[in-house]
Specification:
heterotrimer, B: alpha/beta, N-terminal domain of TfIIb, Rossmann fold, 4 domains, seven-stranded mixed β-sheet, six-stranded mixed β-sheet, C: 228 residues, Alpha-Beta Plaits, 6 helices
Chain lengths: 309, 974, 228
């Protein structure tokens, strides 16, 4: 699949935003933000919603007819994209109320915190299901995709939560441990995903053409220049480059941030390193998302001559 | 579908208008129905009532809107800017009046001095009857159309064997045939009619065998694909003939009644008259009558001729039947399947099996149609007997230098099986069959201000008919009908430029080209041809002093013209598709058709038909002026209505007679055009059931044909398995002919070798002169179906399907040479080299490489942008082919034409090449993947408007179907 | 009704007539125009609703060339419809035709991602998704002669390799052809349940031949008494 930059930005930044919001809300419910100043909490919330908003604005950039974007709320009943739009929009007033509740110490703060967490997670889930629901792309059509999307959001949001907390001097070592644990779990899940993705399965050029008893090779695609379908689905990266990028991505997204967080946890590193760790992780996640698209092989490619997806 | 609830009215039919006309993007000439609105084309569809296409339409026809909108359309007459070089692309607009005056003055001078100094050659011409008449009235013998480089071998072999042929001349009986064999048909010739036919035979469960080195197009759906080695089809056909002869599986009744097989041939080797037919005092060929045990006229009805045997003529001359010679020839070991297999790459078992399968169909699955008919002798016959085996062959057979004899070999196979013009067999299409051969001799006069004594092209039957001077030298600029190519029925268009520039046989003054892209894909040796068009003599004058091009589009040839006369598109003109020309008849009906303007002209162009008639009047051609010397016709329409070739016979056969009540023959009808337009622009005259088969010997048919002027007499058309015509030329080569004989050794050799009165296989000439080890691959081309025979690769829809061609080669060969899919290679022949991109495939004869022809364009032409794929990656195979044979220089110091030695057919497919991968450090490739050779960019013509970056055509704003909110909100998942 | 097409792979010669007929009709049709980018330039590319792919099945020398025209299959489980957020993409209840309301599409491409058959192409000019409409603007147009109330591709196909009809009607030609010639869906394992079916190439026709004995040698043709 063609990795549209706007979509990479959208999923990575809004993911971090929703993750951050979830961490903030969880802090309210689990009590680890009780010692935080209201201002600090509000700033965390604002950062979260800014990230979410950057993501959402970015997502509209890949629309060819953005004038109709408002219509995307209408097919909530079946479309994960529509659901995402709806939940993303609902979250705004809820998050605003949550912010007000923090500021004015409303008694309903726990409910609003809980609602924010739920909406953030649901929105994340709906985003991930846009991809995971597509039977045409076997690399995406797995429950691991929503799990990973949520996990990325939680580790990138969590790390940002820690970095901001560190900035305000309210860092809790237990939270560092929790985030490190989550990074390890996410990495493990990603490795399982890579392993699963590598197994040959799914449709082949034989099932695509209906000739199951013999070799099938494309002789002529019916057009000599690339079409919309080639540009959208024919994205091709050399296998050895993909492998190298996977290693880089694993280092940048998981290993380096993990090391930095551990350094801070260990007491040796300064808390400012957490901001560095977060930035590195975000870069890694952009690469991860690029790979997520670049390695996704749509079944239409079978008709363009690929032997299997 | 009947229900139309809730749907909007999509089309405003009240604003739409339907008009019929005839397509002109290949030679099929399908009937089309055009829907117009807002002065734009809404839709072009096949005319369901039309005999040719029965409602269907090909990819080109469906893209005609884009042809009409092409930015490459010429918009005004152009003159090469004085003082600029030819080919530099500097033109200035000129008015039609000035252009025609200038041309008239030039042509009048040529006509008054030496008419043959005008060479007038036409390309994809569909009005050869008019252009030929024009040339004839002008008085120049130097006229021909593109048949000489297309398919003259097919046409000539058929006409010299059975009076009809394939394609326009005849078709398989699609409704009844049970076994169909297709030879060398490269996705084309014909288009829709063949497709309609293939569907019919598959529907009916008939077997379809395809013989072709490449398995694309029609071959894709064949039941059996024979991956033959190019140029060896004659061997395959004759080996099957041997199998049939060996097993006695021949239709001897057919051979005796309808062919010259039983006719007696003089067997007097080394003596004058050897190989000629034994004739009586009246000139009738003789047969051995088994009733009387004596010689009888071959034309008498009450004889029982012996098919085999050696006899002695009353004068003591030894004779034998033609069929005896044939038996002896084809039973020779060289035609045994095992031996043939080594030549044509088809295994012996398959050769044997296919021959026996056909025999089974012909003799064990015979069909009959119970219709009473009258045979040539006036005898009533109660039924037609059908041997339902049929064949079709085209350019893969014709475009070899052995194509004439190969095509004859295929006809021989058809004839011994008795499958000619019988139910289920190969059927002629009116006005065919003709007598063998039509009694038209090629003109050889060159008298100032005087029309030719006959048509420029005709049918020689003896050396006396050659168009040579008293020294035996060619009189025509293309050397047609000379010892180089004695039976060059369609001329040798591919030799014109080369010969004119060499002044061999003489220099010319003006070259007039219509719709022929001789500076690009229609010439062999393209780069050198461009040089020839620019070549100057020692005085600095162009060797071809004046070049006039008529075309509708900015082709590569336009760039090399001195005067450009812009043509209309086919949707903007009146035109006739005449039976005097290349007919569009069906097997059971005589048909012709017209074109009418569908769109108004939006630029200063004129149809070439109009210009021809106009020039004819200005030049005062006798047939075009009245007694006062004033132009007789108001224009093309008037000419078509009133011109009569013979009393009652004109260009159009329908609605003749004063009131349009007569068909085929009748006095001019002033309202004839209207009658055609009122009848969907075509005329169809159905043959009666008793006129539909065995027409070569069917008096019911022949009487009609004579009345219609299709044949000169009702005599039986005797199929000539044995060609006495060829034998006469061979005798001339042997020095045994009582008439003109060649003086040069190589001519004698050619006549002796190739003018065999019976078809035989010989390796194509270029291949014989090329080192097979050095050049291991055969190289051929074909055009894709969606651009077949067309003038349209600039079409913005069709070029999306293909704007770049590849060199296709067998996967195993590519891998052995280290060539990957989409890798670049050098392709090299004796004539030069080209750089091309490769695709590997399975379905190709492993020794053969091929490509789609005429995809490549020169940068700057055809309205394409400078970076268009056609000029950057597309390539022509033409660069590798020379119009002259490689190697030996013949006696007289000249190289021989790369053509069939009998007909002069251009031998496009005789090419051999070697292939080497382009190395990455190849300097010419310089990072960009480009084909080679590269050419200078052609300059834009005056007032050229480049195309926009986006095109969104529609004839009306779309009427969208609006989905209601209720539906959007209420529908759940299914 | 369940309208759709049967495509006969036994007779499709890959001529592209259906593709250009489709382009021609629909560029002025209900979802038109179908735009073309760089129509006379490098890598020309426009939106088409029907494209023909050619394949080689089997290895040399037993390979067979097969041409497969591809357009919208009007799937029964049309995920392209399910995923559409705006409601522009829908499947008509009355006849099963999958359509795109051009005024509502926001050009997010998601429906094309959901389509396994490459049936949806974004128009480079309008920015809306285009796809086969089964010529809904022809088949119901009662002002057209009845014989012409067919999709443009079906009308033009020179080998009649395309048949249009109602798969719900067991007596329709499409149902009969699918039944009798084992018409199959492409990529059925994805579960989209495409309506269009493809008729596989027939088993090559076996032709009887005259049996000859290899030992017989040359059979001498003999003269028979046959009157001319």
């Amino acid at each position: 699949m063609h990795p549209a930059f706007s979509v990479l930005i959208f999923t990575v930044t809004s993911g971090a935003g929703y993750g951050l919001l979830a961490w903030l809300g969880a802090g309210q419910l689990l009590g680890y933000t009780q010692t935080y100043m209201e201002g600090q909490q509000v700033i965390l919330g604002v950062i979260a919603m800014v990230l979410v908003s950057i993501g959402l604005v970015s997502s509209t950039l890949h629309l060819a007819s953005p004038k109709n974007a408002w219509r995307s709320f209408s097919r909530f009943r079946t479309s994960w994209l529509s659901r995402e739009a709806v939940f993303a929009i609902i979250l705004y007033p809820v998050a605003a109320l949550y912010g007000a509740a923090i500021f004015w110490q409303w008694s309903s703060i726990d409910i609003l915190a809980g609602l924010s967490i739920i909406l953030a997670l649901i929105t994340l889930f709906t985003t991930s299901m846009i991809y995971a629901s597509l039977k045409t792309i076997r690399q995406w059509n797995t429950p691991m995709v929503p799990a990973l999307f949520m996990a990325y959001a939680l580790i990138s949001g969590g790390l940002l939560f820690l970095a901001v907390s560190g900035f305000f001097g309210s860092l809790k070592p237990q939270l560092l441990a929790v985030v490190m644990g989550l990074i390890v779990i996410t990495l493990a899940l990603k490795l399982v995903y890579f392993f699963w993705q590598g197994k040959p399965q799914g449709a082949t050029i034989q099932t695509a053409t209906g000739f199951s008893q013999a070799s099938v090779r494309l002789l002529d695609a019916g057009h000599s220049a690339p079409t919309f379908l080639n540009r959208e689905f024919g994205y091709q990266v050399a296998a050895d480059l993909l492998l190298r990028l996977r290693i880089v991505m694993t280092l940048v997204t998981f290993i380096l941030p993990l090391g930095l967080v551990y350094w801070v946890f260990d007491g040796a590193g300064r808390v400012e390193l957490l901001a560095l760790a977060w930035s590195i992780m975000m870069a890694g996640l952009l690469l991860e998302r690029w790979l997520f698209f670049a390695e996704a092989r749509h079944v239409v490619r079978l008709y363009q001559g690929e032997q299997r997806t | 579908m009947s229900q139309s609830q809730d749907l909007p009215q999509f089309e405003d039919h009240s604003k739409q208008e339907h008009r019929y006309t005839t397509c002109y993007m290949c030679a099929c000439r399908c009937g089309i129905k055009v829907t117009l609105e807002n002065e734009k084309i809404r839709f072009i569809q096949g005319n369901q009532d039309h005999p040719v296409n029965k409602g269907v339409l090909c990819a080109k026809g469906n893209s005609a809107i884009m042809k009409q909108l092409s930015p490459a359309k010429l918009t005004q007459p152009l003159l090469r800017k004085p003082g600029t070089e030819r080919g530099a692309g500097e033109f200035e607009p000129i008015t039609w009046d000035a252009a025609l005056e200038m041309l008239t003055a030039r042509l009048a001078n040529i006509r008054a001095t030496d008419p043959k100094k005008l060479a007038y050659f036409t390309g994809r011409d569909q009005m050869q009857a008019l252009t030929g008449l024009w040339a004839s009235q002008f008085g120049t013998i130097n006229w021909a159309a593109h048949g000489g480089f297309c398919s003259v071998n097919m046409a000539a072999a058929g006409l010299y064997t059975m009076g009809h042929s394939f394609w326009e001349f005849g078709d398989p009986d699609w409704e009844r045939t049970k076994y169909f064999m297709m030879w060398g048909v490269a996705e084309d010739h014909a288009s829709n009619p063949i497709k309609l036919g293939l569907k019919r035979i598959k529907e009916r469960g008939a077997k379809f065998v395809a013989v072709n080195p490449v398995r694309t197009g029609y071959q894709a759906i064949a039941d059996e694909w024979i991956a033959i080695t190019p140029g060896t089809d004659g061997m395959l056909a004759l080996s099957m003939v041997q199998v049939l002869l060996r097993e006695g599986l021949v239709d001897d009744e057919f051979l005796i009644r309808y062919t010259n097989g039983p006719q007696l041939v003089i067997n007097n080797p080394g003596k004058q008259g050897d190989g000629l037919l034994l004739r009586d005092a009246e000139g009738n060929p003789q047969v051995w009558d088994q009733h009387t045990n004596g010689m009888q006229s071959a034309f008498s009805s009450d004889v029982a001729p012996a098919l085999l045997g050696e006899y002695e003529a009353p004068c003591g001359t030894p004779v034998r039947t033609a069929f005896s010679i044939l038996m002896e020839k084809y039973m020779a070991p060289e035609y045994a399947p095992e031996a043939a297999s080594k030549v044509c790459g088809v295994d012996a078992e398959s050769i044997e099996r296919i021959a026996l399968e056909m025999a089974h169909v012909a003799f064990k699955e015979t069909i009959t149609i119970d219709t009473e008919w009258t045979d040539w002798a006036g005898r009533k016959q109660s039924q037609f007997i059908g041997r339902p085996v049929s064949m079709h062959a085209m350019r893969g057979i014709s475009a070899h230098s052995n194509g004439f004899q190969t095509c004859r070999a295929i006809h021989l196979l058809q004839v011994v099986l008795g499958t000619i013009d019988c139910p289920g067999g190969h059927l002629a299409k009116p006005p065919f069959p003709k007598h063998i051969v039509p009694p038209i001799k090629p003109a050889k006069s060159n008298v100032p201000n005087t029309p030719l004594e006959s048509a420029p092209l005709g049918f020689p039957t003896q050396p006396e008919d050659l168009v040579i001077d008293e020294n035996g030298k060619p009189m025509r600029i293309d050397k047609a009908y000379s010892w180089d190519a004695p039976i060059a029925n369609h001329g040798l268009m591919h030799m014109v430029i080369s010969n004119a520039v060499a002044g061999d046989p003489y220099p010319i003054d003006t070259l007039m080209l219509f719709m022929a892209n001789m500076a690009w894909n229609s010439s062999m040796n393209t780069a050198q041809t461009m040089d020839m068009l620019r070549a100057k003599d020692e005085n600095g004058d162009y060797k071809i002093p004046f070049i006039v091009t008529c075309d509708a589009f900015h082709s590569e040839t336009v760039n090399f013209s001195d005067l450009v006369l812009p043509d209309t598109t086919f949707l903007e003109r009146y035109d006739t598709i005449s039976m005097l020309d290349r007919p569009i008849s069906e097997v059971d009906a005589a048909c012709d058709s017209i074109r009418q303007p569908i769109l108004a002209l939006d630029r200063d162009v004129r149809s070439w038909q109009e210009v021809m008639v106009d020039l004819a009047g200005r030049l005062k051609f006798p047939a075009f002026v009245n007694d006062e010397g004033q132009p007789k016709f108001e224009g093309y329409e008037d000419f078509i209505v009133n011109f009569e070739r013979a009393p009652g016979i004109g260009f159009l056969a329908g609605w003749r007679g004063k009131d349009g009540e007569k068909s085929l023959r009748g006095e001019p009808n002033p309202n004839q055009w209207k009658a055609y337009i009122d009848n969907q622009c075509f005329f169809k005259f159905e043959l009666k059931p008793n006129q539909r088969y065995m027409r070569h010997a069917n008096r019911d048919y022949m009487e009609l044909a004579k009345e219609a002027g299709w044949v000169g007499s009702t005599d039986q058309i005797v199929i000539e398995l044995y060609s006495e015509t060829l034998q006469k030329f061979r005798l001339a080569g042997q020095g045994l002919y009582d008439g003109p004989q060649p003086t040069e050794e190589h001519h004698k050799e050619r006549l002796k070798t190739y003018f065999d009165p019976l078809p035989f296989y010989y390796p194509p000439l270029e291949q014989e002169r090329t080192d097979a080890k050095e050049y291991p691959f055969y190289a051929v081309t074909q055009r894709p179906m969606f651009m077949y025979h067309s003038w349209d690769s600039q079409n913005s829809w069709l070029r999306q399907i293909m704007s770049q061609n590849y060199l296709y080669m067998h996967r195993s060969k590519g891998e052995a040479l280290g060539i990957k899919d989409f890798g670049w290679v050098w392709v090299e022949s004796h004539n030069g080299r080209i750089r091309a991109q490769v695709k590997l495939m399975e379905g190709v004869n492993p020794e053969t490489v091929w490509t789609w022809n005429a995809i490549a364009k020169q940068q700057g032409t055809w309205g394409l942008s400078d970076d268009a794929n056609e000029s950057q990656q597309g390539f022509l195979m033409n660069h590798l082919i020379n119009e002259l044979l490689p190697g030996e220089v013949e006696a007289g110091g000249h190289r021989m034409t790369n053509s069939d030695p009998i007909t002069g057919q251009a031998a496009w497919y005789d090419l051999r090449v070697k292939i080497t991968p382009v190395s990455d450090d190849d300097k010419d490739l310089t990072g960009q993947k480009l084909s080679w050779p590269r050419f200078d960019k052609v300059k834009p013509l005056p007032n050229f408007t480049p195309a926009t970056k986006m095109s969104s055509y529609s004839s009306h704003p779309n009427i969208n179907i609006s989905r209601g909110w209720r539906d959007i909100f209420s529908r759940g998942e299914k | 009704m369940k309208l759709g097409l049967v495509v006969d792979l036994d007779t499709c010669v890959g001529c592209h007539a259906c593709a250009t007929a489709c382009k021609q009709w629909n560029t002025s049709g209900t979802i038109g125009p179908l735009s073309d980018e760089r129509p006379y330039g490098k890598d020309p590319s426009g939106s088409w609703l029907n494209r023909i792919h050619s394949y080689e099945v089997g290895d040399s020398p037993h390979s067979k060339t097969v041409n497969i025209p591809m357009s919208c299959m009007h799937c029964e489980t049309a995920d392209c419809v399910t995923v559409c957020p705006t409601g522009a993409s829908y499947k008509r209840e009355e006849d099963g035709i999958v359509l795109i309301d051009q005024d509502k599409c926001m050009g997010c491409n998601l429906c094309s991602w959901a389509c396994p058959y490459g049936a949806r192409e974004l128009d480079p000019d309008s920015g809306t998704m285009k796809k086969c409409t089964l010529c809904v603007d022809r088949i119901y147009d009662e002002q057209l002669p009845e014989s012409e109330r067919q999709p443009a591709c079906v009308l033009t196909c020179p080998t009649s390799s395309r048949v249009f009809g109602d798969f719900d009607d067991p007596d329709s030609e499409v149902s009969k052809l699918t039944r009798e010639r084992a018409g199959q869906q492409l990529m059925p394992e994805l579960g989209y349940n495409p309506v269009n079916t493809y008729l596989p190439p027939r088993i090559p026709k076996q032709q009887d031949s005259i049996v000859v004995s290899p030992m017989q040698g040359v059979k001498q043709l003999v003269n028979r008494i046959i009157n001319r």
